[in-house]
Specification:
The protein is of the alpha/beta class. It folds into three domains: about 10-100 and about 190-220, D-Maltodextrin-Binding Protein, domain 2 (3-Layer(aba) Sandwich); about 105-185, D-Maltodextrin-Binding Protein, domain 2 (3-Layer(aba) Sandwich); about 225-290, Alpha-Beta Plaits (2-Layer Sandwich), CATH 3.30.70. The chain has nine helices and 16 strands. A hairpin with a 5-residue loop joins strand 14 and strand 15 (about 260-265). Helix 1 (about 20-30) packs across helix 7 (about 200-220). The chain is globular and about 80 Å long.
């Protein structure tokens, strides 16, 4: 199959529809790309004339990238593994619908049940959306288990069958359903992936790498703020000692040689404690500002 508009000067981007949709749109906005989605339909618009955007479920996006329906896309590492897709993994983008950390696919059973280890499931039935990965897991463990595809509401099936393999971010839903985690099969983050032929084309490869750089910078900026201030030159060492140890501030001279300007990026969570301490140490004219991208 070939992608619509896969000319040398146009890149076809696939974005995930569903749970990752809003966080993906926000990430692209931070990176400088405005994507708008019509109320009905799967053909979003983007403010870059060199890109066409299409939407697919994350579960199938890796296949469409491999087949060349789209040149590049964002999907989970779990679905790359599930589809055994032959794609180029351009970048790992650690973001999810709730928190910036990997999701886990776990084997879970009822707390009150007799299963305490993988071997206890011998001859049993396990339900999951991640069928191929789960079958490979039990095969590698040498445990004979029937793996059935689950069309959703997987947690509710744990007591109907012998166990489930389901995805979790915090584990709170599993605990609420009184399920015990036996093992973790896979940790997954979102990946920016590309079709191998697209990566072999110089113009498309450059565009893909540019997008990867900007998306990575947008993720790096999450939870950080820029901080500017003026400080007395004779108190510079004292004031910089208050900054996080791993930070190296930019120090600039001012027309008044008795003062210097400092600029640094810090975690937003420490800003509210850090600013009053800086003021008490002699800093003045402090400005804090949000960041869209931090590119090293």
């Amino acid at each position: 199959m070939t992608a619509e508009g896969t000319s040398q000067d146009r890149l076809v981007l696939g974005i995930p529809k569903g749970s990752l949709q809003e966080s993906t749109l926000d990430l692209f906005a931070r990176a400088g790309y405005r994507i708008s989605i019509p109320e009905r339909g799967y053909r979003p618009a983007i403010d870059d004339p060199g890109i066409t955007v299409m939407m697919f479920r994350a579960q199938e996006l890796a296949r469409y990238v491999e087949d060349g329906v789209v040149d590049m896309g964002l999907t989970g590492y779990d679905w790359i593994c599930e589809n055994e897709a032959d794609v180029v993994q351009v970048a790992e983008l650690v973001y999810a619908k709730r928190e910036r950390k990997p999701v886990r696919w776990v084997l879970a059973v009822p707390e009150e049940g007799p299963v305490h280890k993988v071997e206890d499931l011998e001859g049993g039935i396990v339900a999951t959306e991640l069928v191929n990965v789960t079958r490979n897991y039990f095969r590698d463990k040498g445990v004979d288990v029937k793996v059935e595809f689950s069309w959703g509401a997987t947690e509710g099936k744990a007591r109907m069958l012998d166990g489930i393999v389901d995805v979790t971010e915090t584990g709170s839903s599993l605990r609420a359903n009184k399920l015990r985690v036996i093992d973790t099969l896979l940790e997954s983050t979102t990946r920016l992936i590309a079709n191998r032929n697209a990566m072999a084309a110089e113009a498309k490869r450059a565009k893909i790498e540019n997008i990867a750089m900007l998306l990575g910078g947008a993720i790096e900026a999450i939870g950080k703020v820029g901080l500017k201030m003026n400080v007395p030159a004779d108190r510079l060492e004292e004031l910089t000692a208050l900054l996080p140890a791993e930070k190296c501030p930019t120090v600039s001279s001012l027309t008044d040689r008795d003062w210097v300007a400092i600029e640094v990026i810090v975690e937003q969570r420490i800003e509210r404690e850090l600013v009053p301490r800086l003021i008490r140490a002699g800093a003045t004219g402090i400005i804090t500002y949000p960041l869209n991208k931090v590119i090293h």
